[in-house]
Design goal:
Length: 191
């Protein structure tokens, strides 16, 4: 029986693509590039983790793939997988590779609760989640009850103060005050 602790999360099946069982997968981790090491993926079905062998896949942009699993040949069969999280089995990877993945996930999740401060705008709010489902990792920040998505790019981060749980960033103009910038450009939005 496959246990959760032996799995590495790689993405989520978002929708069916076509009529022959192909599925669109939003890839959350670069570990998917190592697909040759693991001929199967794992999904949780009816409360247990079940392996499914990969028939084929192809990249669709930087953060998603089109995936075809063996014996999943119809729209209805593929539709059962929508919303499912996909995993690789750690057994397919060396201990060093699995530890590197764990360290990356732990580092990202360890920043939840940190306050984001911009050099120009000051305190923007606290990180409530980290979205690594896109090509660029995003900090999801609670900014006065609204979610701000801020790129977690190294060149934007100026300092990380672990003691006080503060990340100081130098964000491009317009990224934080998007609503104000739109009002200035659109005469119909002016008050």
């Amino acid at each position: 029986m496959i246990k959760e602790e032996q799995l590495i999360e790689i993405g989520t099946i978002t929708k069916v693509h076509g009529l022959k069982g192909e599925m669109n997968v939003s890839v959350s981790n670069s570990v998917f590039d190592e697909v040759k090491k693991c001929p199967y993926m794992v999904c949780q079905m009816d409360g247990i983790y079940v392996p499914f062998f990969i028939d084929s896949y192809r990249w669709k942009g930087n953060a998603s793939i089109l995936l075809k699993l063996e014996d999943v040949d119809t729209l209805d069969a593929a539709d059962q997988f929508c919303g499912q999280t996909l995993y690789f089995d750690r057994k397919c990877f060396s201990t060093k590779e699995a530890k590197a993945y764990d360290a990356q996930v732990e580092e990202e999740q360890g920043l939840i609760g940190y306050q984001i401060q911009d050099l120009t705008f000051g305190a923007l709010g606290n990180i409530i989640d980290i979205n690594d489902m896109t090509a660029n990792v995003l900090f999801i920040v609670d900014h006065d009850g609204e979610e701000l998505m801020i790129p977690a790019a190294e060149d934007l981060i100026k300092e990380i103060d672990d003691e006080n749980k503060i990340i100081v960033m130098d964000l491009p103009a317009g990224l934080v005050n998007i609503d104000e910038a739109e009002r200035e450009e659109d005469p119909f939005l002016k008050i």
